Amino acid sequence: MASTSIPQLLVAAGSSGSGKTTFTLGLLRALKHRGLSVQSFKCGPDYIDPKFHELSSGRPSINLDLFMMSPEHVRAVYARHTQEADAVILEGVMGLYDGYVRMHGSSAAVAQAVGIPTVLLVDARSSAYSVGALLYGFKHFRQDTEVVGVVFNRVASENHYRFLREAAEDAGVIPLGYIPKTKLLEVPSRHLGLSLHELQELDALPEDVAALIEKHVDIDRLLEACMRPRPTLPAEELQPKPAPSGRKIAVARDEAFNFIYEENIRTLSLHGEVSFFSPLKDEPLPECDLLYIPGGYPEFYLSELASAERTRSSIAAYAASGGRVLAECGGMMYLCRAIRDEEGKAYPMCGVLDQEATMEGMRLRLGYRKLLLAGCEYRGHEFHYSSIVPQEVGEATVGEQLTARDEVAPTLLYRRGNVLAGYTHLYFAEQDPFALFD
């Protein structure tokens, strides 16, 4: 019988760049070495950190996001994925209280929503006893945030840690240990070029961090301080699932298209039978009533995608016949006539959309998005370096997009027949994806 209480914690920091991901990966691997089944989560819409998590723990990591998800949905998803876990680690995003508006949607807000305590990771370079004021501030800034402990990162020596430990004790925060300063523990660039193959080669990173954590962090005390009752499943999660509808849903999934939320796939499976295929392997589109092409890294596989003519032609034929297609970011680029690389060389793609995408003059565009379409609101996020080549007569756009602050966003949604394609990665796990095409 599953334990009624398990360790559950948010790993948070004062800012980005403090080492949250590094520490989370090491702790996941250290607990795995102890024989624990650890469920990880990631605050925010990030696709890459969950891939790191899965590499370290051996279990898929799940996103929790209070802009794209309702609080009730966040709690339900959290409860469902923790039922069989021995421990739970939620990695925060940015600083503890940083949200899309003040602290709305912040790591602290997510931790409050699911009822778990926070362990701070503090970058201790060039600081000593003064961190006590920082810790006191984080602990008391919000009375509804439970900061129980701290781990210090980039610590120069045992003597350095002594000052830090004393500061934590005086601030009323449990000092749980430290990670020494070393050049071995640098997580690779956050650029979207990180491929799945490169992820597999990074297995040494969590191993190295786990060894340091075992040596310098009091893991037992950390787990004890974060012991909390296992969440109970909400009533709706206990209801029988609806009978299969008979509809078929095809999802493109390989190294080029892999920005996929697990909960989106779960929702698709509730509305039909889901199958996967690989455009990179030139697999033909399976018979389907809905085609979902998520984002990913098509720009790193342009030659292979261009050579996969069977896949391209089958998708083009399906779209021309009125088939439903939802394509996001890299998936939208794949539907264009061509994708140009950084030097401007064009590679033919599916030709469903009469336009070209380009990696020339790469510039990052990112942010939360509200998509208003046919009287319904859908939420997601934008994160890309490519753009659409300007042309005199472009594809028609539909709907309206707003930022998290309800300002008009320049990104638009393209529609041709039953094809919906745009740069926004949608989170539709609380909605009927087929309703997009009504």
Write up what this structure looks like.
With 438 residues, the chain is an alpha/beta fold. It contains 14 helices and 25 strands. Strands 1, 2, 3, 4, 5, 6, 7 and 8 form an eight-stranded mixed beta sheet that branches. Strands 11-9-12-14-24-23-21 form a seven-stranded mixed beta sheet. A four-stranded mixed beta sheet has the order 16-15-17-20. The two termini are 45 Å apart.
Main sheet overview: 8 strands, mixed
Average pLDDT: 92
Cα separation of the termini = 45 Å
**Percent of residues in β-strands:** 25-35%
Low-confidence stretches: 190-194
Label the overall shape: globular
Evaluate the radius of gyration. Answer: 23 Å
Fraction of residues in helices? 25-40%
- The DSSP helix count reads 14
Layout of helices and strands, plus pairs?
Blueprint (H helix, E strand, L loop, with lengths): L4 E9 L6 H14 L4 E6 L4 H10 L4 E3 L6 H12 L4 E5 L15 H8 L3 E6 L7 H10 L6 E9 L2 H14 L2 E7 L15 H6 L2 H13 L2 H7 L1 E3 L5 H4 L9 E5 L4 E3 L2 H9 L2 E5 L12 E4 L1 E2 L5 H6 L1 H12 L3 E5 L1 H6 E5 L5 E3 L4 E6 L6 E9 L2 E9 L2 E2 L8 E2 L1 E3 L10 E4 L2 E4 L2 E3 L11
Parallel strand pairs: 1-4, 1-5, 2-3, 2-4, 5-6, 6-7, 9-11, 9-12, 12-14, 14-24, 15-17
Antiparallel strand pairs: 1-8, 10-13, 15-16, 17-20, 18-19, 18-22, 19-25, 21-23, 23-24
Helix pairs in contact: 1-2, 1-8, 5-6
Features:
438 residues, seven-stranded mixed β-sheet, 25 strands, alpha/beta, eight-stranded mixed β-sheet, globular
In short:
With 438 residues, the chain is an alpha/beta fold.
